[in-house]
Amino acid sequence: MSSTTHPRPRYLFIRILEACNADCFMCDFALSRDTFRFSPADFAELLPKARAVGVAYVRFTGGEPLMHPEVVDLVRAGTEAGMKMSIITNGSLLPKHAKDLAAAGLAQVIVSLDGASAGTHDTYRRSPGMFEAGLRGLRLAAELGVLPRVNTVVGPHNYAEMPELQRVLTEAGVRQWELSALKLDRTIRYPDPEHVRAVCDPLYEADPASVLVPMGKRFYGDTPEEQWQYFEDSTPPRASLPLCHVTDDVIYIDGKRGRMHACSCIPHRDDADGPGGAPIREGGVILLDTPAFRARVDHFRERGPRVCSGCSTTAAGYSDDVARLGTVTPWQY
Fold first, then answer.
1. How crowded is residue 258: how many other Cβ atoms within 10 Å of its Cβ?
2. Under 8 Å CB-to-CB from 189, ≥6 apart: which residues?
3. Which stretches of 68-117 are DSSP H helices?
4. Strand, helix or coil at 56?
5. Which residues of 142-181 are buried (b: 16+ CB within 10 A; e: fewer)?
């Protein structure tokens, strides 16, 4: 599939490291000191291949991407290659690096904030000072012309804080907000699902002209069927039947393992059947949209709406928008 035949610009996600300076209770990378770093040489080799298959957006993930010593150089290289560059970060180092990242051409920054105040967010992330650093970094990024977004993981521990967080983020000038369901290797129970709806439905029904409204689907589902599935077995809302359209538009690269996946929400670890995804190198050369990768795209396009258990609200909403409209606005994933 080439850039001349693909109907929409594609997203390339790259996990550029697994090290992290946060201690989030829900994350496998908490306080990781892993030494892997995705190299500028690999990125230089990858960029023309990405352009050839229609990639327009590149997002660096981690771990904590701002711990990568060459992250500014990587952003600059992507910008110079014509890509719109994005980073998802815990925000602790953003005030320090915001000016250099903006000068390198960073187009969007996503900060993870899970509480409405330092007293709660820093407790959930087990990282003192992270809330204030994240907000300060978001404000600075906005002043520098970088699109500010917040991602929030929502669960029984913090859903009641979402109206206050909505107010805080609106006042801070945040432009995009994703609420995605907490995912753990066990069933997650809410004492009163009706209270979740009463607290959170108004978030999504607010006037976007005056308040920041979350992107994508509700984290507990939009339809009665989705909400039943979420509250009964902890499965977050997925792309609606019959097909998941995210798989056609996303390439997720796990640099350390040398694998690529058809969605940023598909598990990146090895499983009982061996390595997940498809290899990004064949004969030592980086290749995208290989037959092995396309087979996984086809698999999840057709089966994802029935079997995926880790979808994000923006991924589900993106797929449904494509199905309904045939297109999506920039940065909707």
1. 15
2. 156
3. 71-80, 94-103
4. strand
5. beeebbbbbbbbbbebbbebbeebbebbeebebebbbbbb
Question: For 263-313, what is each residue's pLDDT tens digit?
Answer: 998 755 555 555 689 999 999 999 999 999 999 999 999 999 999 989 999
Greatest Cα-to-Cα distance within the chain, rounded to the nearest angstrom: 56
Phi-psi region of 49 (alpha: psi -120 to 50; beta: other; left: phi over 0): alpha
Six token digits for residue 34: 């892993």
Helix (H, G, I), strand (E, B) or coil at 120: helix
Nearest in space to 161 (alpha carbons), one of 116, 98, 218, 108: 116
Contact 166, 212 (CB under 8 A): yes
Tokens of 281: 């190198």
* Token pair listed for 225: 């069927």
Name the β-bridge partners of 43: none
- pLDDT tens-place string over residues 165-183: 999 999 999 999 999 999 8
CB atoms within 10 A of CB 271: 8
CB contact at 8 A, 296 and 277 = yes
CA 68 – CA 105 distance, rounded (Å): 17
User: What are the start-end ranges of the E strands in the chain?
Assistant: 10-15, 55-61, 84-89, 106-112, 147-154, 176-181, 250-254, 259-261, 278-279, 281-282, 285-286
146 SS3 class: coil
pTM (2 decimals)? 0.95
